[in-house]
Model the fold of this input.
Amino acid sequence: MEIYEGWKNHLLPKKELKNEISKVANERIAICESCFYHSNNRSNYKSLRKDDHCTDCGCTLAAKTKCMSCSCPRDKWKAVITKEEENIIDKNG
Done:
């Protein structure tokens, strides 16, 4: 369910949250780009996938980094809202 939130925020972000989502995602992407588990940083890693993704959790980083209730499986970055808060946002939006 977490990656669904990230894809939703990537493709159809709520207007009032768009800037915050973008800010958080940019901070997270910068962290991911320097991480060993980023698909571009693994010299012996082979994949048919063309997207930037985490080789630990398998998520597409364009979506994962926009999931506000998600955290990095390697504790490189934390969720900025709880899953309960995300559910409230969804119900009210």
